[in-house]
Structure formats: C-alpha cells, structure tokens
Design brief:
heterodimer; A: alpha+beta; 5-stranded mixed sheet; 12 strands; B: alpha/beta
Chain lengths: 405, 117
C-alpha cells in the first residue's frame, strides 16, 4: 500500500473526481459554493478534519486522515455515509451528530484511529470539535490529537515502548493542536462579544425597550470591529492556505510608499489614541516602486499592530530610504525586544514571542509578512536586543517586476 | 437593593455588552484591568465576580489565587474561550466556568444560579 505520498492536491483530485453523481449529493458542478469553500479549507488543514454533508451524511475528509482510514480497512470512506464509515462510533456518537441543530459546537471525545508505522500499529485518540455549516446542511469537524499509543495492535503496549516510539509524532501533533486551539480561541473572543451585543439588542426590542440611537450606533460599531477582527483572522488563514498551495498571487503596480504608509496609519487612529502610542515617519514622497499595494499594506499593518501589541504607549518610527535599485523600509519600536536566539524563529509559521497567555494572537502574521516580501523579491530581517526595542528592516527592489524576470 | 457584580474582562466589547444586558437587574462594576479589581476588592464586597481568564497584566487564574489567599468567599464565575480549561483550575476555589462564546441565557442563568440568596 502506498503511504505518506499524498499531498493536499492529491486528496483534492480524489475528492473532485469521485463519482458524486451516483450519490445523494449529485454532480459536484452543482454543489453549493459554501460546501466547496469548506472542502478547500479542510484540504489545507494538517490535522484530521472532515465534513459530513447532506441528508445521507456523506463523508468528505482531508489528507491528514487518509492513512488512518485506509488502515482501518475503509478505503472507500470517501463519499460513504458516516453511519457506514463509523458504524461502531455511530452507536456512541451518532445521536449527538443527528440531533445537532444549534450553533454550539459539539465535542466527540476519544475517537480511536489506527495507523501502521514500521509494521506496528499505532493507536491514536482524537477529540473532534464539530460545528454546524450554514443552515445545518452539514458539520465541519476538526480533530485534536488526544494522545498517541503505539505497539502491536493486539498487544497492549508497555509504557516504555510507548515513550520510545512516539515522541516525534507526538511533538508534531502538539504543535498542530496548539495552532488549532490558538485559532479557535482567537475566533471565540470576537464571536462572544458579537453574540452578546446582538442578542441583547434583539431582546431589548422584543421587550419594547428600544435603546437610544446613540446606544445602537455604539453597539453596531463594536459589532463591526469584531467582524473586522474575524475577517482579518480568516484572511490570514486563507493566505496560509494560498502560500502552502502556491496560489499566493501578487499584482505589481506603481505604488507610493508614503501614501501606502499614510493609508495604513489612518486605519490605526483609534488604536493609537487608545494606547497613547505615537507614530512618526520619515518617508520621502518620491519613493514610488512597482509593488502590490494591498499586499504591502498588509505587511505594514502587521508590523504596526505588532509594535502596538508588544509595546503599547511607546513611540514607533517608520522610515524609508532609497539605496541604488532598492528601498530600505524600517519599522522601529521601543518594546521588549527579541532575544537573539528567537530572532530567526519569528518569521516561521505559528511562532509567537510570548509563551504566556498575555499576548493574544496566533503567530501567522510575520510568516505571511515574510512571504509577501519574498513575493516582491525582497528580504525582511529584524535587529533587536532584549529590552531595547526591535527594528524590522525590509529591503525591496524598486521594481519587483523587473527583478522577477 | 440590586445585587452587585464585578465583571472583569480586557475586551471592552464583552464588558460593554454584559453591562448593557445586566445593568437593569444588577449593579455592575465593569473593570478592564484585573489589578484595579484586586485593589477595589480590598474595600468592596460584590455579591459575585465574573472574570475572564486570558488578560494582559494579570490573568484570571492569578486573580483567583490572590483572592484565595485573602480567604475570599465571594462566588467567582470564570469565562474562558479555551477548551479543556477546567483542568487548569483544579484546586482553586471558583463557583463555575462559562465557555465562550456563550448566549445571554447561559450567562444569566449561571449568574442567577451562583448568586448567594
């Protein structure tokens, strides 16, 4: 059996070439965009994730899962009803899924999986969090690796065996689980606020205690801000997906660095005021290059929001200078700085400087920033000492198009 | 007299919504910085404390620790967006956990249930 050779794109072609017309879902060409967008999402997730869709609860899953399902002798799991794929689990969890009809996620605990490794069968336990898609047409379920047990399938392994054989796999899973829990945490916070505001508003109207227009505007302002946060996070996740699948596009047009920076600073007015942070800048108007304006704005947004997040109330200085065919763009803060050994890590995916709970964030930002700069044939680096602030330095070719040729 | 609640959360959106929702029934002190709450609790005695876990400066668990040292008897309800959170609260004195996101019915019934009569 072939294993470990699948990529998300392979799984995608498996899904898209499946004879769906023979199922209750019908021809894939007629599927709802919502379902297709969820399928795209699951393909880029690295933990077992699946969708069950339609009245027959048909099973569509991602590559992270394929192996475990294959070894479970369910090679035809794709497109089958979840009731057949998981006949035994359906007994214990089916009623939960069946009855699920509200917005609160359901938790399927301790679902066992098996995978062959070095001729040994490994047993995994996954907890799944399932959320409803759209109007309950389907469920979207993501797995958290609960623990990992290794050994002969028929012999319960000793603890020693267990520790020897599974550390690396386990560490891998911990990193992924960490991301999922960070992402879900980041999603839940704005959703809580939105939900409360809107439910309360609705209730007041039902009770004929309509709030004043000023109050309503305030509530709507908060709601819009929470939605912006959600959109931002989702965009980050989508970008990660695009980067991974090589579909990260840039469009180069004449762009003024000064104008771009001004635009971004404007967006932070409220936050700067609230945190008493001042931004100064030194960028000459004539620095115009062939860049992707919205992508570069994304870079500057990220750097400024990081500076505010880690050093609220401390001044930020942005400058740009031409140097031959390049521009050196720097964003300098006076925050806690970054230890030398951490500096190489911050541009990686899922890295956050702060291990504590103090700073919110998922750690996707600088990874995306680096990718955007790279797509402009530029480079980003950081100069910093602990407790002495940090300076992010971007070196961009004036004509990113030219450099690309 | 209205019962008095301390609500401690660094997210102004949530604080504002909870105040808006609950201020008809309760007297609300909405506090964004847990350190201020700790100070105020030297002199004030609300009937219930509703506290977020993930906050800068001083997080919810630290607040519970500090209050525990002061032999606190005020019921504390913990709001959390993390899953598997209750394991981290083992050994601490708290009345209950509300997972974010929650509905207005969830929060109202939790408060009513844990308010001393």
């Amino acid at each position: 059996m072939q294993r470990n050779t699948y990529k998300p794109s392979d799984m995608a072609s498996l899904i898209f070439n499946y004879p769906w017309e023979n199922t209750s879902l019908g021809n894939i060409k007629n599927w709802s965009p919502l379902l297709l967008s969820y399928i795209t999402t699951i393909l880029n997730i690295t933990t077992p994730t699946f969708i069950i869709w339609g009245r027959d609860k048909l099973f569509i899953y991602n590559d992270a899962y394929r192996e475990t399902l294959m070894d479970n002798n369910i090679s035809n799991a794709l497109g089958s009803s979840i009731q057949d794929v998981w006949a035994d689990k359906w007994l214990s969890h089916g009623s939960l899924i069946e009855k699920h009809s509200n917005e609160i996620p359901i938790l399927l605990e301790s679902v066992p999986f098996y995978r062959l490794k070095n001729k040994k069968s490994q047993k995994f336990f996954y907890n799944f969090v399932c959320t409803q898609i759209g109007d309950a047409e389907g469920l979207f379920c993501t797995g958290y690796n609960q623990n990992l047990i290794s050994g002969q399938l028929k012999n319960i392994p000793s603890c020693k065996e267990l520790n020897k054989t599974t550390i690396s796999g386990e560490q891998l899973h911990i990193a992924r689980d960490e991301l999922i829990s960070l992402v879900s945490h980041e999603l839940k916070t704005p959703i809580t606020s939105l939900q409360l505001q809107i439910q309360t508003l609705r209730r007041k109207f039902y009770q004929h205690k309509a709030p004043t227009p000023e109050k309503i505007i305030k509530i709507l302002d908060i709601a819009v801000k929470q939605i912006d946060k959600l959109v931002e996070l989702i965009n980050d996740l989508l970008d990660i997906g695009r980067i991974r699948s090589g579909r990260f596009d840039v469009q180069f047009n004449p762009t003024s660095l000064k104008e771009l920076t001004d635009n971004v600073i404007m967006r932070f007015v409220a936050e700067l005021e609230a945190t008493h942070t001042v931004i100064t800048q030194d960028i000459s108007e004539d620095i115009i290059g062939n860049w992707d304006q919205s992508r570069l704005e994304q870079v500057v947004v990220n750097l400024i929001s990081n500076a505010i997040k880690y050093a609220p109330g401390k001044p930020i200085h942005i400058s740009a200078k031409k140097k031959n065919n390049f521009v050196i763009y720097t964003v300098k803060d006076l925050g806690p700085g970054i230890a030398k050994e951490k500096q190489s890590q911050i541009f990686k995916r899922y890295e956050r400087l702060s291990e504590s709970d103090e700073i919110n964030g998922v750690g996707l930002g600088l990874y995306i920033v680096r990718k955007i700069v790279a797509s402009h044939r530029g480079k980003i680096s950081v100069r910093s000492k602990l407790n002495k602030g940090a300076t992010f330095i971007i070196k961009l070719p004036i004509d990113s198009c030219e450099q690309a040729k | 007299m209205k019962k008095h609640l301390f609500i401690i959360d660094d997210d102004p959106g949530i604080l504002d919504a909870l105040t808006f929702l609950l201020s008809e029934t309760y007297e609300i002190s909405a506090i964004t910085d847990a350190r201020i709450a700790i100070d105020r609790l030297q002199n004030e005695r609300p009937d219930l404390i509703l506290i977020d876990v993930l906050m800068p400066a001083l997080n919810g668990i630290e607040v519970i620790k500090i209050l525990q040292k002061r032999k606190n008897t005020i019921p504390i309800l913990v709001m959390s967006a993390s899953s598997n959170f209750e394991s981290r609260l083992k050994g601490f004195n708290y009345a209950g956990v509300i997972s974010k996101p929650f509905t207005i019915d969830d929060i109202e019934s939790m408060i009513a249930m844990h308010l001393p009569s």
